[in-house]
Write a structure and sequence with these properties.
CATH superfamily: Vaccinia Virus protein VP39
Shape: globular
Number of helices: 10
Largest sheet: 7 strands, mixed
Radius of gyration: 17 Å
Helix content: 25-40%
Order of helices and strands: HHHHEHEHEEHEHHEEH
CATH architecture: 3-Layer(aba) Sandwich
CATH topology: Rossmann fold
Length: 230
């Protein structure tokens, strides 16, 4: 599925279904505690500083950014981008963040605009080509020495359980691709990231489905020459 199609699907789902309205509650700050529990300590894990420029791709209502902004006195408001106008509308009262409608596969930002990029529960909706486009765009928007953190629902060894999990997490959205750490790492390398590591984000409380998380780095200027000499 492409980013544009994801946005249209979410808009219809959120407006027309009971499950969509319930999802909207999970996209709120209280829901964040359940679905993205590691976010409570993410500012410490990433050692975020006031001078950091932060972007959240697939920000939904902006709850993650609002939480991080409550922990770190950023000099510039963190920026969130989402393809769904309906999701962004849920965060229209946010005061400490800036929310933008747009696609992660075509980020409307200049090169090296951000020091840290987060992306939560987005890539399952993207086909392989769109996933690669998103990762390339994230790297382009990162400053040299910047990092990106991605987390998503993960597959299990059971095909039957995977089928059930996909049904649970795609109510009203349909398409879903669960990828493991090895697969996501390969795409990150193809996108140009110089280093990738397992972020080991824990715990995730709801829904009770495994997650995969990785942290990716864009090398500082001169890193290639220094690495070659070493």
């Amino acid at each position: 599925m492409t980013s544009a199609r994801v946005g249209r699907t979410y808009n219809r789902w959120l407006k027309r279904s009971v499950s969509g309205r319930l999802y909207g509650l999970l996209a709120s700050p209280p829901g964040l505690m359940l679905v993205n529990t590691p976010a409570l300590k993410l500012h410490e894990e990433l050692q975020l500083r006031p001078e950091n420029r932060l972007l959240d791709v697939g920000c939904g209502s902006g709850a993650l950014l609002e939480l991080l902004a409550s922990k770190v006195p950023f000099r510039r408001p963190p920026v969130g981008i989402d393809v769904s106008a309906s999701m962004l509308g849920l965060g229209r009262e946010r005061r400490r963040v800036s929310l933008v409608e747009g696609s992660g596969t075509q980020l409307p930002f200049a090169d090296e605009s951000f020091d840290v990029v987060t992306c939560a529960h987005v890539v399952k909706h993207l086909d392989d080509a769109s996933l690669l486009e998103l990762l390339r765009e994230v790297r382009r928007a990162l400053s040299h020495g910047g990092i990106a953190v991605v987390w998503e629902f993960a597959p299990t060894p059971s095909r039957l359980l995977n089928a059930w999990n996909e049904r649970v997490i795609t109510l009203g959205v349909r398409d879903c691709s669960l990828r493991d750490y090895t697969t996501l790492s390969a795409y990150a390398l193809e996108a140009g990231f110089e280093w990738i590591s397992n972020a080991h984000l824990r715990p995730f409380i709801y829904p009770p489905i495994p997650r995969v998380s990785l942290i990716m780095g864009k090398a500082p200027i001169g890193w290639a020459e220094d690495h070659h000499e070493a």
